[in-house]
């Protein structure tokens, strides 16, 4: 079995696939290294022979996780590394090492699935949009705060924006003008995300008049999916790219 990890700024997404890559056997989302090892400890029938991961965390945090994986599972995790090119896909950053590895892998995964020009939007702690041309040229992208950062900034920098987490979840059932603080903030922030995505769509239409594919991923992808009716929502997009960047043969 192959253990795959996508270590974002807020959550670690993990999954276990068969060695030939054809079956997804187990999957989960955890908020810490400790929770990851707890989940793995109780995973039924788990026998990990290989491991690959991508991390946007600090090198020290990533090295610590790799060491713990070695201790507890006896595997040496292969970590995705920056690259200026993989196959026909070219990294568009001035310094390719600076492009977030989750973005790079999502771009590789999207181009692999789409085989044409792509707009890739990843809605997590941060929201990122990346453009890839039909020939595989990554043209760069945009970064803005994601939903958790927007709401945290509002509560951190105001005195009276305070509301219950449960109320917040209920507030997103619809997007009418809010009639409570929770509704006003939650819906306002979701509309920011939706406006951002709509703008990216306009940019893609202008850049790729011959057509393009839109891929949505990240924990908050569902909040914007109907802004782009033809979009493919691919929760595992980073893992698709991880398999391309880190083949385990
Ligand atoms: N089951 C879930 N577990 C955790 N976060 C979720 C879940 N469903 C939706 N979310 C949303 O996804 C966001 C995190 O997205 P994610 O792509 O995991 O972020 P990151 O890669 O930055 O860690 C959370 O802030 C939350 O708004
Ligand atoms: C933009 C990001 C913070 C997104 O992280 P995430 O929301 O997935 O946790 C990450 O891709 C990153 O640290 N990028 C480095 C900066 C850049 O891509 O330009
Ligand atoms: K993201």
TrEMBL record:
This protein's pathway: Cofactor biosynthesis; coenzyme A biosynthesis; CoA from (R)-pantothenate: step 1/5
Active site: 102
Cofactor(s) this protein requires: NH4(+); K(+)
Organism, as annotated: Ectopseudomonas chengduensis
Record text on subunit structure and interactions: Homodimer.
Biological process annotations from GO: coenzyme A biosynthetic process
Sequence similarity: Belongs to the type III pantothenate kinase family.
Entry binding sites for K(+): 122
One Pfam short name: Pan_kinase
Purpose of the protein: Catalyzes the phosphorylation of pantothenate (Pan), the first step in CoA biosynthesis.
Identification of the protein by name: Type III pantothenate kinase
């Amino acid at each position: 079995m192959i253990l795959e990890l996508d270590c974002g700024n807020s959550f670690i997404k993990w999954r276990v696939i068969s060695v030939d890559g054809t079956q997804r056997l187990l999957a989960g989302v955890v908020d810490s290294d400790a929770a990851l090892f707890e989940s793995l400890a109780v995973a039924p029938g788990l026998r990990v022979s290989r491991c690959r991961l991508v991390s946007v965390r600090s090198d020290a945090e990533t090295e610590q996780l790799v060491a713990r994986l070695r201790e507890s599972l006896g595997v040496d995790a292969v970590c995705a590394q920056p690259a200026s090119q993989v196959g026909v896909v070219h990294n568009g950053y001035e310094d390719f090492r600076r492009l977030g590895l989750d973005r790079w892998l999502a771009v590789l995964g999207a181009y692999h699935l789409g085989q044409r020009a792509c707009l890739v939007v990843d809605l997590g702690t941060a929201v990122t949009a990346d453009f890839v041309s039909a020939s595989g040229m990554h043209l760069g992208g945009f970064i803005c705060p994601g939903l958790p950062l927007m709401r945290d900034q509002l509560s951190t920098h105001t005195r009276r924006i305070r509301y219950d987490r449960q109320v917040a979840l209920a507030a997103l059932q619809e997007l009418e003008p809010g009639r409570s603080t929770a509704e006003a903030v939650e819906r306002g922030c979701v509309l920011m995300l939706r406006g951002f995505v709509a703008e990216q769509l306009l940019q893609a239409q202008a850049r790729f008049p011959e057509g393009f594919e839109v891929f949505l991923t990240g924990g908050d992808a569902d909040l914007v999916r109907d802004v782009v009716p033809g979009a493919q929502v691919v929760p595992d997009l980073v893992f698709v790219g991880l398999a391309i960047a880190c083949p385990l043969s």
